[in-house]
Design a protein that fits this description.
Helix content is 26%, strand content 32%. It has 315 residues and is an alpha+beta fold. The chain folds into 2 domains: 229 residues, Aminohydrolase, N-terminal nucleophile (Ntn) domain (Glutamine Phosphoribosylpyrophosphate, subunit 1, domain 1, 4-Layer Sandwich), CATH 3.60.20; 76 residues, Alpha-Beta Plaits, CATH 3.30.70.100.
Length: 315
């Protein structure tokens, strides 16, 4: 059992940013009974001042070895990039960098350094995840200080894989910037999908089925397919029981399988939308007396920042 949450502000006025990090913290804390093995968020719509922000993880003894990050800096500089800033919390590194080439080249260069894992690379978003509940995540990584336009979050109870940070959500869709996924459920055709995507040149950092969903959707978007259409196609291509939320640089999308086995509730006004596995998460942040609704089986919904929501579905 896991819990997922998301919030999006539809209308963006200039450089205004909303307290997305704090709201996700509260929504996820309300669902900590669904899993405290790990917690994570993606906050989107930030203003970095650099081309990208990379979130890196250096597990184990390598974290205390400055040579690893030195080698990562050399790798970025070796492909024509430059490092603007580096901050650190334990084994976690936040790197602001400039790079004008293909993001795949940048990601491969960084991942080519032994001992380095990439949690995300984004132009306007970043993934922060760690073990423990959302308040522990906030104490270590200050997620409540992150403001943006939208974001997604996840609390995890490990079932099919080990309790560690590598298998925590959200998952970045390597190597696409600003695309991530949170997922509640299980894919039964995970191995088939993985092989097909690997044959097309994609690589994965974990053996988690949720990572495959992110890359699957990002691949569709790279082909010029709209987010809603990509989600619709996933309802036929993904086997199993699932509800997942995808975050992009401009919006979020929700897909719910044909069995509707995983709970999901939506709160929506003219200004914003909040979604979560349980209503208690929504009411913790949005106490207004506005009707909530639960999408039924085989349903897709999408919302964009600064645009009216595009809603589609089928049953």
């Amino acid at each position: 059992m896991c819990g997922i949450a998301a919030v999006l502000y539809k209308v963006q006025a200039g450089d205004q940013r909303h307290p997305v990090g704090r709201q996700l913290r509260e929504m996820l804390y309300a669902m900590r009974h669904r899993g405290v093995d790990s917690t994570g968020v993606t906050v989107c719509g930030e203003s970095f001042g650099t081309d990208y922000v990379a979130r890196l993880f250096v597990p184990g003894e390598n974290a205390v070895d400055a040579k690893v990050i030195t080698e990562a800096k050399k790798a970025v500089m070796g492909i024509g990039g430059s490092i603007d800033s580096i901050s650190r919390v334990g084994s976690f590194f936040r790197v602001g960098l400039d790079f004008k080439g293909d993001v795949r080249i940048l990601a491969d260069a960084i991942l080519g350094v032994p001992g380095v894992e990439i949690h995300s690379i984004g132009r306007s978003s970043e993934i922060i995840k760690d073990t423990g509940d959302s308040y522990e995540l906030d104490r270590r990584h200050d997620i409540s200080r992150l403001n943006g336009t939208h974001g997604v979050g996840h609390v995890r109870l490990a079932t099919e894989s080990q309790v560690d940070i590598r298998h925590s959500h959200p998952f970045w869709a390597y190597p696409f910037p600003d695309i991530s996924v949170v997922h509640n459920g299980q894919l039964t055709n995970y191995h088939t999908l993985t092989r097909k995507l690997q044959q097309r040149g994609y690589r994965f950092q974990t053996h988690n089925d949720s990572e495959v969903i992110g890359v699957y959707i990002a691949d569709k978007l790279s082909q010029g397919i709209k987010l809603g259409d990509a989600l619709e196609q996933s309802l036929d291509d993904l086997d199993g029981t699932f509800t997942y939320v995808v975050s992009t640089d401009s919006g979020i999308g929700v897909a719910k399988d044909r069995w509707s086995a995983k709970p999901f509730v939506i709160f929506e006004t003219g200004e914003l939308v909040g979604v979560a596995s349980e209503e208690v998460a929504l009411r913790r942040v949005f106490p207004e007396n506005v009707e909530r609704f639960e999408p039924q089986e085989h349903t897709v919904l999408t919302w964009n920042v600064a645009l009216a929501p595009v809603i589609g579905g089928r049953s």
